[in-house]
Write a structure and sequence with these properties.
Elements: H1 3-23, H2 28-33, H3 35-54, H4 57-62, H5 68-80, H6 87-109
Helix pairs in contact: 1-3, 1-6, 3-5, 3-6
Length: 113
């Protein structure tokens, strides 16, 4: 893996770990009540998508088990549709999809912790 790609994967891991920290001990209802939580999750998910978008085609092709297109599409939706964010989708992304993604990213980076 190219050094630049590894750095991007590490950025994705950092953002995914931040998502996990942000929702730890929180519930779906908290997302509707806590604007800072929403903004934090949205920003971390945007970082995931931006880093994924910057990966080389070789890196993405080498890891077809990672839903690269969906990650980038989510980032684009949040960035360009910031005025109409569906909090149910943000919560599902943060509580289900990002935790499923994290082990894949760690494996790609050679960090199985």
């Amino acid at each position: 893996m190219r050094d630049e790609d590894r750095v991007r994967i590490l950025h994705m891991i950092d953002a995914a770990e931040a998502v996990a920290q942000f929702i730890d001990g929180r519930s779906r209802d908290d997302l509707d009540q806590d604007r800072m939580l929403l903004f934090s999750l949205v920003h971390a998910i945007e970082i995931l998508g931006e880093a994924a978008n910057k990966l080389s085609l070789d890196a993405r092709t080498a890891a077809p088990q990672v839903p690269w297109g969906a990650i980038v599409a989510m980032r684009n939706r949040l960035i360009h549709g910031y005025f109409d964010i569906d909090t149910t989708i943000v919560w599902k992304t943060a509580s289900v999809e990002v935790p499923e993604l994290l082990p894949l990213l760690r494996t790609l980076a050679g960090r199985n912790t």
